[in-house]
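[job 4471] stage=fold_predict status=RUNNING
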Amino acid sequence: MEDRIDELEHEVADLRTVIDEPEEEADENPQEDDFAALDRWLQENGPQSDDAQEILLTAAQILNSEGPLKTSELKDRLAERYLEESTYASVDTLWASTVERLYEVTPGFEKPGYGTYDFDTTQIKKQIN
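[job 4471] inference complete, writing structure tokens
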């Protein structure tokens, strides 16, 4: 009986470790948390289309890692990734229906100058909360 209790205690300890791991991983990369929060915001408040939500999330990630980018650069990056498999007929339609239409209300997006877009992850939590 004591052996079985020991086994169960080890199983519980292992389960607690597994439960705690996502929090540790989140602490290691806070930007993943920011993008998860943006994804939730998009699902709750953003466009109804799953394609549009995914495109905005991708645009945010591209701008976060490479930005600021000119409009044409960001459009090209999104077109490479989504134009063939999305519901949008052209890159202009994709752009007009997503980033151009929603950047002002989507947390984190910025337009630091004419024809330039950027993304600031620190603004996500400020704007969402």
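[job 4471] summary: The chain has a mean pLDDT of 83.
[job 4471] exit 0
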